[in-house]
Amino acid sequence: MIGNAAHRAPAQTPASPSAPARLTPYGLRCEHRETPLGVGEPRPLLSWRLASARAGDDPVAYELEVGGWSSGRIEDPAAIGAVYGGPPLLPRRRYGWRVTVWAEDGAEGSAESWFETGQDVWQASWIAHDPDAVEHVDPPTEGDQALSHHGLLPCPQLRTSFESAAGVTRARLHISAKGLYEARVNGHRVGDAELAPGWTDYRRRIQCQVHDVTPFLLDGENVLAATLADGWWSGFTGFDPRRPGYHYGRFPELIAELHLTFDDGSTRIVATGEGWRTGHGKIRYGDLLKGECHDARAETPGWDLPGFDDSSWRPAVVTGDDHSLLVASRDEPVRALGELLPVSSVLVRPGVHLVDFGQNIAGRVRLAVRDQEPGRRVTVRHGETLDGEDRLHTANLRTADATDVLITAGGAEEVFEPRFTYHGFRYAEVSGLDRLDDIRAVVLHSDTPWTGTFECSDPEVNRLYENIGWGQRGNFVSVPTDCPQRDERLGWLADAQVFLPTACFNADVSAFFSKWMRDVVDAQSPEGGFSNVAPLLTGVADEGAPGWADAGVLVPWHLYRVYGDDRFLDVDSMARWVDFVARHNPDLIWRHRTGPHFADWLAPGPATPREVLATAFFHRSVALAAEAARVRGRHGETERLGALAARIREAFAAAFVGDGGLVEGDTQTGYLLALAFGLLTPEQGRGAAARLAMLVEESGPQTGFLGVNLLCPVLSAYGRADLAHTLLRRTDPPSWLYQVRHGATTVWERWDGVGAASMNSFNHYAFGSIGEWLYSGVAGIDQAPGSVAFREVVICPLPGDLSWASASHESARGLISVSWRNDEEGFRLQTRIPPGATATVHLPGGDTRRVTSGDHIFELVRGEKP
Ligand code: BGC
């Protein structure tokens, strides 16, 4: 028996001891990024989070000052950001900005940051190594017919030198490539972006980056240089067809402008164009899927420094001066964000070492090789799992060779790290060396600041949580991919859609998805069909799959709710999509194909009828498009789409809903979609939820990708948190902990990890979408249905039979944390709510409290047992 809750403020500040004494903005962002360079948005969004150690210390107003412009004091207690509203911003300028917030008692707090605007007009030309003067290189892997026909291109090096007077006060490099680039100024690597400029549909737009290179400039001769690789542009991309040049282009090209400002105010631009020289160096090829080969003997020392004799190099070919597709980057780039040392390294055959990094990642290996003779061939192959005890399992990579090769130059120490490839792997097999001196795995992923923590009393659930995070890291590589290892790595829309709520708890993915939503809209067909993958590429399954294409509506809606940025809501593109489906299905049952139908992908259980699944998503998309129209003040569309949603709901009920809430097909996913998407009356909902629970009790989870994210949330919303916990803790397949018990370090593509080798990824995050419920259910951090950016927090922990859990989320408004313990003494919960938010706290046993921002403790003392 649990008594009444005692509520008090903690004596000391809990989760974040650094909370300031009074209301203070922090975490300032411009366009969702910290101090970005090269902002392209004419009216950028400037946002902030709030912290205060005092309960109820909420904002009432704010003021933004940008350069010489001020918003004036704006009374808005909900504000955590505003778009710049001053005079047009000038290109290539740094703007300092400050936000001031006022609390109710008049106290004010402020913080400062800055951003820089990007390029308006380009002068540079695209340049390349003459493609007809390149010998294709056959990669050293055996038995790959496709490769022996097509070969791979050596990575071109491009350089120019220029004289500069003394007194450079500011130097900015604006740069992009068709392909991948790595730039250097006077021998210094420029920036820390990997795989830049990232992947977009290059037929539609190419992102460019801006780097501050001021410290690298010299008086006198200077060198601006870059290495290029094929990347997604002209390399092996996706799975079909397997030849370079098919998807976007044939060979890589570079564009760059170095803008110099001198202390006398004068300026100068060094740009790609005539006069650049190109040659080749040690990188014989670098391909995302095939791997990379360095022949260290062909290194061209000093090629990126002044004084290098490039007279034997060729003039670069000017390939064009079309700048129309160049746009400012919206996202943070991929970066090297961690390193792992081996947990074991075994000599499995003479000269062959098998290295286990203990964690499945996306990235590559860095290897130091000491005291070798010239010309030794060292090969690094990668795999996620093993065949037997001592062989890499590579069948699931399909045609991704994922093989890196070093041919040594000889000498005391050579460090080999590929620059233009990445692999999905836990194990590396290194052959060609008698001993391994220094080897480590470099973790690569898009830089999305981590915002979540979760821990509970079950170590296996904690491992699951870790696996979900690693799955996110390994699959957020410029675009949200399905998997990082095989010849696929595509931005499949459904995978992204079901995982997004988990991703948003784990990390600040606002900039990452702001970039990707532009890819999604770019990929929309003229008829309105959202695609199934974005960026789009030739040869990959077109448009319109239910649950996949719908991500064009579901993803921006969720981003808006989490980050509060209504610019995510592109009502016109949403309306084009739903009108497209409606045109093909005038009776509002989505049975006519708008593209392929992937059904409830990889569901182990009975198939959900395709029309049920499709029509449920149709309704969801239309209903959310109507909501989006409401938020954007589009009254006509709100009414039109709202009415359409109501008609689809009626059509769904008439066609598929039977007595007692039975949904046609009687499958878990059918019930989940109908319940979660509001397709049933309250009475039908109760019946459907009871039937869903029976099915789950009978056979555990039977959903594929399209139902799995709803499973635990819907069960708990209908009073069956106990069953959701049973599912979470279940260890028989299909289950999450089955994977954990079988050594998973990421989430598998298939519940049980068993399937055709060609379709069996061990790093596929869709089933990891339970992560959302670890935060929102187990720990209990959620927001109320109509709330945006956590203005109305819901704290509703579901302890099940766990004895404790804690979680935190650095939300768009500020830090939210929960930690609870449930033991013989009772239930104790501690929570932090950010300024500007209120919370409803639901305690076990039904007690509900409304609280202000700040820190709170609740204690329920367990009474005497009768
Ligand atoms: C991918 C999935 C994707 C699916 C479409 C697969 O090859 O790996 O994650 O959503 O195709 O059915």
UniProtKB/TrEMBL annotation:
InterPro entries: 6-hairpin_glycosidase_sf (IPR008928), 6hp_glycosidase-like_sf (IPR012341), Alpha_rhamnosid (IPR016007), Bac_rhamnosid6H (IPR035396), Bac_rhamnosid_C (IPR035398), Bac_rhamnosid_N (IPR013737), Ig-like_fold (IPR013783), Rhamnosid_concanavalin (IPR008902)
All residue ranges annotated as the Alpha-L-rhamnosidase six-hairpin glycosidase domain in the record: 451-778
GO molecular function terms noted in the UniProt entry: hydrolase activity
Stretches assigned to the Alpha-L-rhamnosidase C-terminal domain: 780-854
Low complexity: compositionally biased ranges: 9-21
Domain (Bacterial alpha-L-rhamnosidase N-terminal) ranges: 168-335
EC number: 3.2.1.40
Gene3D superfamilies reported for this sequence: 1.50.10.10, Galactose-binding domain-like, Immunoglobulins, Maltose phosphorylase, domain 3
First-tier enzyme category under EC: hydrolase
Domain of life: Bacteria
UniProt catalytic activity: Hydrolysis of terminal non-reducing alpha-L-rhamnose residues in alpha-L-rhamnosides
Keywords from the named record: Hydrolase
Renumbered residue ranges of the record's region Disordered: 1-23
Alpha-L-rhamnosidase concanavalin-like domain: residues covered: 348-445
Listed name of the protein: alpha-L-rhamnosidase
Organism the protein comes from: Microtetraspora malaysiensis
